[in-house]
Design goal:
With 206 residues, the protein is mostly helical. The protein has 8 helices and no strands.
Length: 206
């Protein structure tokens, strides 16, 4: 019996040592691949930025005329107008290494500015829509949220609030398109957004 336990323990430790060695080798290979790719990215020359998906703010369809005297809303309007004067690109789901490989290492600073402008825009649109919805301007909030979704935002609250508005307005079928957009996101938030939207859609059909 003792021999059996010893043999079993010995076999387990042999397996464990092999497993640890294999994991270390995989980690080393992954780290080496990352740094090789990063080195290649850092040596990539500047490339054209013409194919970027620049975002244009649709002033003609967004509700800038609603609650414009409200101090909070006015701040959101000012922020959006200010951002519109800069290039805006949603790069939140693309790593810096990939950006440098695509557009060249010298462009990483300007690309970061484009993405920072988008981050502020996405956050402001969400806050603006929440305020409109709370003050009873549901249709206007929906317009703001739908624009935000069209930019492939990964702000979870944007999807959830828009889905709730659709449900309240008897437009639950539109949640399906939100799910499709959320599934297309290259974001760690995608799975959680999709799961919650599917729950809302399921509850709306009960």
């Amino acid at each position: 019996m003792n021999f059996f336990l010893f043999a079993s323990s010995f076999t387990f430790f042999i397996w464990l040592a092999h497993r640890l060695k294999k994991n270390r080798k995989i980690e080393y290979q992954n780290e080496k691949s990352f740094w090789d790719l990063e080195s290649q990215a850092n040596s990539t020359r500047r490339k054209s930025l013409d194919d970027l998906d620049y975002i244009t703010i649709p002033f003609e369809t967004l509700p800038f005329d609603v609650l414009s005297d409200d101090e909070t809303i006015a701040d959101y309007h000012t922020t959006v107008r200010s951002i519109s004067e800069k290039p805006i690109v949603n790069l939140s789901c693309i790593s810096n290494t990939e950006l440098k490989l695509r557009y060249g290492a010298p462009n990483i600073t300007i690309l970061s500015r484009f993405d920072s402008a988008y981050t502020v825009l996405a956050r402001t649109l969400q806050q603006w829509a929440v305020k409109l919805n709370e003050d009873g301007f549901v249709k206007e909030a929906m317009d703001v949220l739908e624009f935000a979704v069209s930019t492939k935002t990964d702000v979870s609250g944007t999807y959830f609030l828009l889905a709730e508005i659709y449900m309240n307005l008897g437009m639950s079928e539109k949640i399906t398109s939100l799910i499709d957009t959320a599934e297309s996101l290259n974001s760690s938030f995608s799975t959680g957004i999709v799961r919650r939207l599917e729950e809302l859609l399921s509850n709306s059909s009960v």
